[in-house]
Amino acid sequence: MQKIKILEGNRHIDERGTLTFNNGFNAFLVKRFYFIENKNKNIVRGWQGHKIEQRWFSAVKGSFKINIITIDDWNNPSKKLKLQSYILSSTTLDVLHVPEGNITSIQSLEDYSKLMVLSDYSMGEVKDEHHFNLNYFN
């Protein structure tokens, strides 16, 4: 199984303006993308994830906190699984790679934030969406 990783982006500012980029992200596996814009900072989307699909997340406006848990048993996961947290900000265009076998919870840290999500499967190509109650994990 692949490891969760941050592909660091960067930005260049000069007299013409700002160029935000991520030269370390290779999108050859991506088949679709969409955007998440939470209504406010109090909303937490989760827990949702995939056994076989992988996702890439990048804040294109504002910032987000993304919590990730690697699932041990999809039918009856342990309630005490290790949680990893990542902060994504549009100022650097970092890309968070979440491989298969993980679930996420997503929260905006600023008003009007916008998160781009990329997937390696087309919509309807596989049935691989798993949900858990937000309070399931300790």
Summarize the structure.
The chain is mainly β.
**How large, in whole angstroms, is the Cα Rg?**
15 Å
Report, as a whole number of angstroms, the end-to-end distance: 24 Å
CATH H level, superfamily name: Jelly Rolls
According to CATH, what is the topology?
Jelly Rolls
Estimate the helix proportion, in percent: under 10%
**Mean pLDDT score:** 96
The backbone outline, from C-alpha atoms, is: globular
CATH architecture, please?
Sandwich
Largest sheet: 5 strands, antiparallel
CATH class: Mainly Beta
Task: Please state roughly what percent of the residues sit in beta strands, choosing from under 5%, 5-15%, 15-25%, 25-35%, 35-45% or over 45%.
Answer: over 45%
Structural class comes to mainly beta
Say how many strands there are.
Answer: 12
Strand order of the largest sheet: 1-9-6-11-4
Order of helices and strands: EEEEEEEEEEEE
> How many domains in all?
1
Number of helices: 0
Give the low-pLDDT segments: none
Q: Oligomeric status of the shown chains?
A: single chain
Topology, please?
Elements: E1 5-7, E2 10-14, E3 17-21, E4 32-36, E5 44-50, E6 55-61, E7 63-70, E8 83-89, E9 95-98, E10 102-108, E11 114-119, E12 130-131
Antiparallel strand pairs: 1-9, 2-3, 4-11, 5-10, 5-12, 6-9, 6-11, 7-8, 7-10
Question: What report would you give on this structure?
Answer:
This protein is mainly beta. It has a single domain, classed as Jelly Rolls. Helix content is 0%, strand content 48%. It is built from no helices and 12 strands. A 5-stranded antiparallel sheet has the order 1-9-6-11-4, with no helix packed on it. The chain has a 5-stranded antiparallel sheet with strand order 8-7-10-5-12, with no helix packed on it. A hairpin with a 2-residue loop joins β2 and β3. It starts with a strand and ends in a 7-residue tail after the last strand. The model has no long low-confidence stretch (mean pLDDT 96).
